[in-house]
């Protein structure tokens, strides 16, 4: 079940990357922010939820 743990870590790193891209986009503003800002934050929430699910499944399986 180490696979779930590493998958959770991967989703955590993806969450962190999407978060920083979203914050950077929001701070610059502009057309890119208007087009993708909300989608980036939605992607962050999905990745964060997947990370939590992986860690919960890993904890239950251990």
Summarize the structure.
The chain has two helices and no strands. It is 95% helix and 0% strand.
Overview of the molecule:
It contains 2 helices and no strands. The protein is 95% helix and 0% strand. It is mainly α and 62 residues long.
Summary keywords:
62 residues, mainly alpha, 2 helices, 95% helix
Oligomer: single chain
Number of helical stretches of at least 4 residues: 2
Which segments are poorly predicted (pLDDT under 50) over 5 or more consecutive residues?
none
Structure classification: mainly alpha
**Overall morphology:** elongated
SSE string = HH
Number of strands: 0
Q: Report Rg.
A: 14 Å
Mean pLDDT score: 94
Helix content: over 70%
Distance between the termini: 7 Å
Give the strand content.
under 5%
Please specify the SSE layout and strand pairing.
Layout: H1 2-28, H2 30-61
Helix pairs in contact: 1-2
